[in-house]
Amino acid sequence: MAASAIPEFTGDHGTTTQEYAYSRLRNAIIVGAFAPGTALTIRGLAQELNLSPTPIREAVRRLSSENAIQVLGNRRLRVPDMSLGRFEELVHLRISLETHAAERAFPYISTVIIEKMRALDDQMDVALAAGDLDALTRINQAFHKDLYGLNPHQAVMPMIESLWLQLGPFQRQVIKTIKVSAMIDRHKEMLAAMEARDVTALCSALESDIRDGSIRLGRAILRNQAGETVT
Amino acid sequence: MAASAIPEFTGDHGTTTQEYAYSRLRNAIIVGAFAPGTALTIRGLAQELNLSPTPIREAVRRLSSENAIQVLGNRRLRVPDMSLGRFEELVHLRISLETHAAERAFPYISTVIIEKMRALDDQMDVALAAGDLDALTRINQAFHKDLYGLNPHQAVMPMIESLWLQLGPFQRQVIKTIKVSAMIDRHKEMLAAMEARDVTALCSALESDIRDGSIRLGRAILRNQAGETVT
DNA sequence: TTTATTCCTTTGTGATCTCTTTTAGGCTTG
DNA sequence: CAAGCCTAAAAGAGATCACAAAGGAATAAA
What we know:
Two copies of one chain form a homodimer.
Chain A: H1 2-5, H2 17-30, E1 39-40, H3 42-49, H4 53-65, E2 70-71, E3 77-78, E4 82-83, H5 84-105, H6 111-130, H7 133-148, H8 157-177, H9 187-195, H10 199-224, E5 229-230
Antiparallel strand pairs in A: 1-3, 2-3, 4-5
Helix pairs in contact in A: 2-4, 3-4, 5-8, 5-10, 6-7, 6-9, 9-10
Chain B binds a DNA duplex (30 and 30 nucleotides) through residues 16-18, 41-44, 51-55, 57-58, 74-77.
C-alpha cells in the first residue's frame, strides 16, 4: 500500500528534500496514481516517503498553487474532483495554450529537433507495447515539451504543466478504461507538418491530438456518471 | 524600510499565518513593490512581517510555483529580471489567455455584471485622480477578474494571475515612468461591446487594452536598456 | 594595487515539539 | 430510533533548534 501508492521513477529529484518530495508527488499526480477526490494527509505522505512533515507541507503548498492539490477550508487536502464542465474547460485550455506555444515555438523548429521528437515517438510505441502507462504518459509529455520549449523566452510551459497535473488523475481513469489499441495520437501528423514547415497543419494536428486523446473519451465517461462528479 | 517595503492592504488574508504571508507577499509583487531582480531572504521577510520563517518559506514556495519568485540554485531568492523577450512573451500570453477567458465567459454576461464592472471602472477614475497606483492596479485587475470569473467552470484565472504576478514588478516601472494622463484603458469600449453582446468587439477591445497598456511602453523602455536586462 | 585564501556571519533546510483544530465513535437524551 | 453531544485520537500549523552551505570581509601574498 505504502510503496505502491506513490510510484517511484528515475528523474531529476533536485537537491533538497522538499524538491524530492515535490517531484515524487508531482509525478504521482501527473501519471494518475491518485484517483480524483482522494483525501491526502501531510503526515501520511511524510510516512510513505520516510520524511518529516515539513518538506511535505512545502511540496503540497506548491502543488496547491498549481491547482494539482486542493486545500479545503477545514485544512484537509484532496486531489480535486473532476466534473464534465471542468474537464471540458481544461481541454479547451490545453488547446488554447498548447496551440499558442506551438505557434511561438514554430520559428525555432530544426531538423535536429524533429529527429529528437521522432525518437520520442518511437519510444512511445515501445512503452505502449510493454503496457507501461506511466512511461507512456511521461514520454508523450516529453514529446510536447520538447516542441514548446524551443522558444527560448517561453513562459507558457509551467501553465501547460499545471493543466497536465489537473488532468492527470482523471486521465488515468480514461486510459485504463479504453483498449490500448484504441489509443491513437497525431504525432506522425505533427512531425510531417513540422517537416513541411506548415504552422497551420501543425496546430491543427496538435488540436486533434489533444481532442482525440481526451475529450471524446472524457465526455463518454462523465456522461455515464449519475451526477456531475466522478470518483 | 521595513514597513515601507511590503505595503499593507485591506483584503482577505485567509485564516492561517501562511496565507497571510502569501497574500502580503503576493500583493507586494503584483503592485510592483519589489523591483525586478530584487534579492529576498526568508529570514528578512519573516522579520518584516513579524513571523517565524516557516510560514514565509511556505508562502515563498507557492509564489515560486507561480513564477513570481525565482529560487536560484544556490538557495537564494530573487524577483525575476525582465528582458525584452520575456516581456513580449508574457504580453502575448496575456492576450491569448485573457481572450480565451473572455470568450468563454461571454455567454454568462448579464446587465448585473456590466453594472458591476462599470462601477469598478468609475472607481479607477477616482484612484487615478488620487494617484493611488496600488489601488489602480488592484481595481483594474478586479475589473478583468469579474469578467473572466463569470464562467463557473473556468480554470484559467490562476494562470492569468500568474502572468499578472510576473508582470507586476516591471509594470510598476512602466507606470511610474509615463505621465498619468497618458494612461488610457479600453474599459469603456469593452463595456460597450458587452452591452452590444458583441464577442468579437469585446475581444478586440480587450486585446487593445492589454497591448496599449503595456507593450508599447515596455518596448520603449526595454529598448533603451544597454543589454537585454532591466534592473 | 590587485588577487587569492581563510574565517566569521548569515541564511536555508529539515526535524522535532507544542498547541490548536478537526474528526470520528460511542453515548446520552428526547 | 434518531439526533445531538462529548471525548479521545489524529492531524495541521507554526515556532524553535541544530546543522550545513554559501557569502562577504579581512588579511596576506604577489
